[in-house]
Design goal:
The complex is a heterodimer of chains A (398) and B (375). By secondary structure, chain A is α+β, with helices and mostly antiparallel strands. Chain A is built from 13 helices and 8 strands. Chain A has 3 domains: 83 residues, no CATH class; 110 residues, Butyryl-CoA Dehydrogenase, subunit A, domain 2; 147 residues, Butyryl-CoA Dehydrogenase, subunit A, domain 3, CATH 1.20.140.10. Chain B folds into 3 domains: 114 residues, Acyl-CoA dehydrogenase/oxidase, N-terminal domain (Butyryl-Coa Dehydrogenase, subunit A, domain 1); 107 residues, Butyryl-CoA Dehydrogenase, subunit A, domain 2 (Beta Barrel); 143 residues, Up-down Bundle (Butyryl-CoA Dehydrogenase, subunit A, domain 3), CATH 1.20.140. The radius of gyration of chain B is 21 Å and the shape is globular. The chains are: A alpha+beta (398), B alpha+beta (375). Chains A and B meet through α10, α12 and α13 of A and β6, β8, α9, α10 and α11 of B.
């Protein structure tokens, strides 16, 4: 066990740094740094650069277009991307549906979808939650009926992030109602351009549009878009959730955000003293830092296991709980640092990051919307209450 | 000792509650927020007719001479109904500043006009880097040719864009940070050299950046004793804190009730989620948090801000908005799940206001520091 970087690691680190400097659009960087929403175009630009370099999917096996990086290299890459405020790669393709296709897909499915995920030719979204099925996901009622050559799907999905941009959705559907709920679910790939698909925005507390309702009316999904076996969707979903939860840790981004808070605190925000001199505030920053350090080690362990092919277990749930809490804590600290400049509501500011004259320092313009919006992290991806239920049952055996 | 309301107080309580129920539903409020002015003139006239604009002013100033309990009752109900009319900025904050200023024609006229519902007034006390310290004043007023000339920048002035008059704290002597040497001036918003950049606040109110560029006003617009406004400002803020505390307690009570209703109706795993013990305990915790805020808010309204005890009590309740209030707000959203973070649900609107009330007039860290230094 050691934490040292080898000579090669240091060379790699410089390579990553140079790559980011050369390819990250300054405007995109600024948006990420200040917490504005990115446009589809912003994200595509960055993902295309990663794709050209072959760095789109570090966690995949080399044969599918992954990198075969060591744990250290993956750590370095995340760290550098976070520190430079590069956009996160949209998770729905690369870190969510792709591992599923790699593990459960047929050769045809792999050959067809994986390259399109790498190149972002397909933009993915996730069709899990329904209005009546959130924490109790297994109770979902979106129905797939067998028809000639495939399935006919009817139902409503909700909280579908980026569905308004998406080409494809991986979706959980009910294929059997006369059994335990978990045993009648199937995992399918649905083309968002199919007839019968309609997307309606859900506006969140920050005034932004990231999530949607997706209505499915007699949508046809061909037979070959079923993943694994019929009624085995729950097994697939559980496999995917393990991946989703570890990728929720956002350690390097939280570290970067915290260092930004330290910089902000140095500014003369507090009359005669700066916030940097305010022990009350700085103690909160330090306590958050301590939690990040613990999370960082936990994430490294998970990546280390992943490289060895050991699937994530209980640590995925623990990482999800703490990672989401830390992200919220950070937004609280920025909100507090902003003082009265948290007040101005600057519509569009979350989306454009420019256009309007800003009121107050630019880092504070998103502080309140970010705080409101980030309440979602302890709710999505399986609420933290559900994570605790899983841990109590699976690990504590209670 | 008697902690129940008297008959008059019951009357006030009933009249505000009746107004909220009958005339101030969520849709009405949303329309008001997105309107140009950010408040509703007819509703303001109703406030006037119901006597709420006169309530906190002394009888000798033409008011009803209501006490802090009366103010608490109104503000708690405003919290309950999430009222966004500029009552806090015009009547509570600016009204208190005027009340504490010495008698003058301008003072009498402004108070009369507020009571009659003719004007809105904003109090401009904060500056770009002043944070919550009201003695950190760099805006300057100079006396030249029998006029006062004001130069400076006031930031996030609540109600500025809605106001007919702005009360500006400015330095007439001494340097930035000094408690001495601050005076208050009354500036009509159409005065040359005064510019207001009006904006909506994240909690549905209005505020503005106020630029003073060689604003010339006549002598009588100095409404405080020259150089000695510090006490006026700190008393006005303390009195306003009692109103803020009451508003927060009304919001917290409502958020608790809405959350309780939600967990009784939202079904997962075949039952209402309120059947789960983990949810029950958290809802009970919310009840306690809401009750604590109500206790602290009532206590400070009873003790007032005139004694050390009263100041401590007022500050304690304000600190609790950032502690218990934040906790309750976050729990309310969490228990609403995804619905809690949608713009459409009412719970989120309350959450935003409660969150921002921690910052309003000084956040919990600021008052923890002050409290720790009190005898």
């Amino acid at each position: 066990m050691n934490l040292n970087f080898s000579e090669e690691d240091l060379i790699f680190k410089q390579e990553v740094r140079d790559f980011i400097n050369k390819n990250l659009n300054p405007n995109t960087k600024k948006k990420v740094e200040e917490g504005h929403h990115l446009t589809k175009e912003d994200m595509l630009k960055w993902q295309n650069k990663l794709y050209e370099k072959g760095w789109m999917a570090p966690s995949w096996a080399k044969e599918y277009g992954g990198t075969d990086w060591t744990v250290t290299q993956r750590y370095i890459f995340d760290e550098e991307c976070g520190a430079a405020s590069a956009p996160s790669v949209l998770p729905f393709g690369v870190t969510m549906v792709a591992p599923v296709i790699i593990k459960y897909g047929t050769k045809e499915q792999k050959d067809f979808y994986l390259p399109k995920i790498l190149s972002t030719e397909h933009w993915w979204c996730q069709g899990y939650s329904e209005p009546g099925s959130g924490s109790d996901l297994a109770s979902l009622t979106t129905k797939a009926e067998k028809v000639e050559g495939g399935y006919k799907i009817n139902g409503t999905k909700t909280w579908t992030t980026m569905a308004h941009y998406a080409d494809m959705m991986f979706v959980l559907v009910r294929t059997n109602s006369d059994c335990k709920p978990q045993e009648g679910i199937s995992f399918m790939l649905l083309n968002m351009k199919s007839s019968g698909v309609s997307v309606k925005p859900i506006i969140t507390l920050d005034g932004g549009h990231e999530v949607n309702m997706v209505y499915l009316e007699d949508v046809f999904v061909p037979e070959e878009n079923l993943i694994y076996e019929i009624n085995k969707g729950w097994t697939v979903a559980k496999y995917l959730l393990g991946h989703e939860r570890t990728s929720n840790a956002q350690v390097s981004r939280s570290k970067k955000a915290l260092s930004k808070i330290r910089e902000i605190a140095k500014l003369n925000l507090n009359g005669e003293l700066s916030l940097r001199d305010d022990a009350r505030f700085m103690d909160k920053v330090t306590k958050c830092d301590i939690r990040i350090q613990a999370l960082e080690y936990a994430e490294l362990k998970a990546i280390s296991n992943d490289v060895k092919g050991i699937p994530p277990g209980a640590e995925a749930n623990m990482i999800k709980i703490r990672g989401s809490e830390i992200q919220q804590e950070i937004t609280e600290l920025v909100l507090e640092a902003s003082g009265y400049y948290a007040y101005p509501y600057q519509s569009n500011v979350m989306d454009t990051g420019k256009n309007e004259p800003l009121i107050g320092p630019s880092w504070s313009t998103t502080s309140a919307p970010k705080y409101f919006n980030t309440r979602k992290t302890t709710i999505y991806g399986g609420s933290n209450e559900i994570q605790k239920n899983i841990l109590a049952k699976m690990v504590l055996e209670l | 000792m008697d902690l129940s309301f008297n008959q008059d107080q019951e009357l006030i309580k009933n009249s505000v509650e009746k107004f909220i129920t009958e005339a101030y539903d969520a849709e009405t409020r949303r329309k008001i927020i997105s309107s140009n002015k950010g408040y509703n003139e007819e509703i303001w006239q109703q406030f006037c007719e119901l006597g709420w604009l006169a309530l906190p002013f002394k009888e000798e100033d033409g008011g009803f001479g209501g006490d802090l309990i009366d103010l608490k009752i109104i503000m708690k109900s405003f919290g309950n109904g999430l009222v966004v009319e500029p009552y806090m900025s015009t009547v509570v904050l600016s009204g208190s500043v005027l009340s504490f200023c010495p008698n003058s024609n301008i003072r009498s006229q402004l108070i009369k006009d507020i009571i009659e519902g003719n004007i809105q007034v904003a109090f401009a006390f904060s500056e770009v880097n002043s944070r919550f310290n009201t003695s950190d004043v760099s805006t300057r007023a100079e006396y030249k040719d029998k006029e006062w000339v004001l130069n400076g920048y006031k930031s996030v002035v609540f109600g500025a864009g809605q106001a007919d008059y702005i009360l500006v704290s400015a330095r007439t002597s001494s340097d930035r940070f000094d408690k001495n040497g601050i005076s208050i001036f009354c500036v009509k918003t159409d005065t040359k050299g005064l510019e207001i950049q009006d904006f909506q606040t994240v909690d549905g109110f209005r505020a503005g950046e106020v630029v003073l560029n060689n604003v010339k006003i006549s002598e009588e617009n100095l409404i405080s004793v020259k150089d000695e406004a510090d006490k006026v400002i700190s008393n006005a803020i303390l009195k306003s804190l009692i109103a803020v505390n009451a508003e927060a307690s009304g919001i917290m009570e409502k958020m608790y009730e809405m959350t309780l209703e939600y967990i009784k109706t939202r079904k997962q795993f075949g039952v209402a989620i309120g059947k789960f013990q983990v949810i029950q305990h958290r809802a009970v915790e919310m009840l306690i948090l809401s009750d604590e805020m109500e206790s602290l808010s009532s206590m400070c309204a009873l003790k007032g801000y005139g004694s050390n005890e009263g100041i401590k009590s007022t500050i304690s309740a304000k600190i609790n908005i950032g502690l218990g209030g934040r906790k309750l707000g976050q729990e309310a959203i969490q228990l609403h799940g995804g619905m809690g973070v949608t713009e459409e649900m009412e719970i989120g609107q309350y959450f935003k206001r409660l969150t921002m009330l921690d910052t309003f007039l000084g956040n919990s860290d600021y008052y923890l520091d002050i409290y720790s230094k009190l005898e």
